[in-house]
């Protein structure tokens, strides 16, 4: 199992780096769309849309809505409109935090398949828009790599610190394996990344890596918890089985879909992305 998981992780890393560095902007847009649409297929299952035709309809709806929003934001050339979309996404994630905290009592608010399907729009579309926006920046490849690395650092730190020091459960009803010690361990490891980036950042951005990276280390945990909550309610272990040893695409990007919109807003606000 460990060998399979490691092999899959290496393949995913190679594919991601190749797509990020070799594809032109339009090619990367298509690549990112494909990843998020596979995630939409899996989200449909999480929502309770089990028949394949229902899941296919949901994917088409997500794709259509994403295209419309991309057109409205001039394919992310309009910072002002994009920021409004991302702020709406952040407000949604604040609501998600309340739902995760209130689980299982909060189930009454979102248990219907329709509500969970609508939530998928707020989770997937802003993350895709933010990703393609980052890619078209002058230092876009660097910024995408940073957010992926920051979420990975938070995840790895949480895993090892949680296993070694974990005692206080974060939210046992949602994810019994996660602990507060793991969360702060993940933030600590992400902080090391932020410190490293601050050493190579030009003025006036010495402290910007901390302002940008520390919040997304925490937000990525929320993305993980939200998916765990829906999986627990749905009675499944993984969102899918497309990635051997890892489950589904959503199981790999659950932290990123929450982190990327917040990360992008912080980049725009601090001017680090320009």
Molecular structure report:
This protein is mainly α. It has one domain (2-270). It is built from 10 helices and 2 strands, in the order αααααααββααα. It has a two-stranded antiparallel ribbon with strand order 1-2. The longest helix has 27 residues, at 208-234. The protein is globular, with a radius of gyration of 18 Å. It starts with a helix and ends with a helix. 41% of the residues are buried. The model has no long low-confidence stretch (mean pLDDT 92).
SSE diagram, text form:
Elements: H1 2-22, H2 25-47, H3 52-72, H4 79-102, H5 107-110, H6 113-135, H7 140-165, E1 169-171, E2 175-179, H8 180-200, H9 208-234, H10 249-270
Antiparallel strand pairs: 1-2
Number of domains in the coordinates?
1
Gyration radius, in Å: 18 Å
Shape: globular
Mean pLDDT: 92
Compact overview of the structure:
The chain is mainly α. It is 77% helix and 3% strand.
Labels describing this entry:
274 residues; mainly alpha; 2 strands; 77% helix; 3% strand
